[in-house]
Each structure stands twice: as structure tokens, then as C-alpha cells.
Amino acid sequence: MNYWVRLFGNIGQHRDKHKYIVHVLWALPLVLIIRLIRPLLLIRLGYLNSVRIGHFTPDTAEHIALSKVTPKNCLDWYWIPNRVSNKQWSLMVKRTLTVHNWTKYLDWCNLLLPGGEAHSRPSTYRGSRDQDGLVYKLNLAMPFLAQRVQYSTLRIQH
Q1: What are the C-alpha distances in Å from 148 to residues 29, 61, 85, 106, 133?
Q2: Contact yes or no for 134/58 (Cβ under 8 A)
Q3: Parallel, antiparallel, or unpaired for β 120-121 and 74-79?
Q4: Predicted local distance difference test score (pLDDT) of residue 137
């Protein structure tokens, strides 16, 4: 009973109350399924802090590095808030990590239900700093699309 009070209390805090009520109808059952299949496949949900470039770039680099060393039976799904400090970086991140807007509602429902910590990915683990040097050790680079490189090269030459 306490869960339902929390759920509807949290929905009441949002501007788009009706939108959240509709999304809870599909997200809540899906979160329960995600939790049921955890012994076979761990799906973790989280957001990438995109509001400030000082967090967006290092935090996503950290998640990209961690994705390279994540076990095969683990999937990470992310969402990016509407405010984005660097649109090009956002496009590149979306090509590298699994980012979907609908993950926001799964993440929201997961955090409301007790026991969802294993399925949660915080925006950062180390305060926006690569303290272990994982990005450097893995020699990570965010590739530009070939068309963008070609376009930029032509623009520089003329």
C-alpha cells in the first residue's frame, strides 16, 4: 500500500501528470519482468547528466569505458534529459551507448519500487573523474561518422 502512495505522490509532482500515468501502465510491468529475468540477464537503467558539459563528457566517457568491461549477461540502457549542453556529443553518445527516451520511465518506476538498486546506473560513480584511468587504459575514442570527417575536411580546405 505504501508503494501506491509513493507512486501517485511522485506522479503528482510532475508537470505532465497524465503522461506519467500512461507510461506507468507499460513501464511498471516491464520493470517487474526485468527484475524476474535478472538471474539470466541483468538490465541496468540510468541517465546521463547532459545539462553541464563538465559532467556530460566525462560521465558518458566513464560509462562507455565501463561498457567495455561489462559482463556479457548485462545490458545497460540509458536516457538523456531534454536539456543537452552539447548536441554533437549527444549524437555520438547515442551511437555508442544504448540510449532511448523511454528508458526514463523504466528507470523512474524501478527507483520507486523497493529493491531496484541492482538495476540502477547512477550518472557517475567517481564524481565526473576517471580516477582509475579506465578511459586512458582502454584507449577510448569517440569516432565521427565518415561523412562528417569528409565534410569537415572539405570545409577546411576551401
Answers
A1: 41, 21, 20, 34, 29
A2: no
A3: unpaired
A4: 79
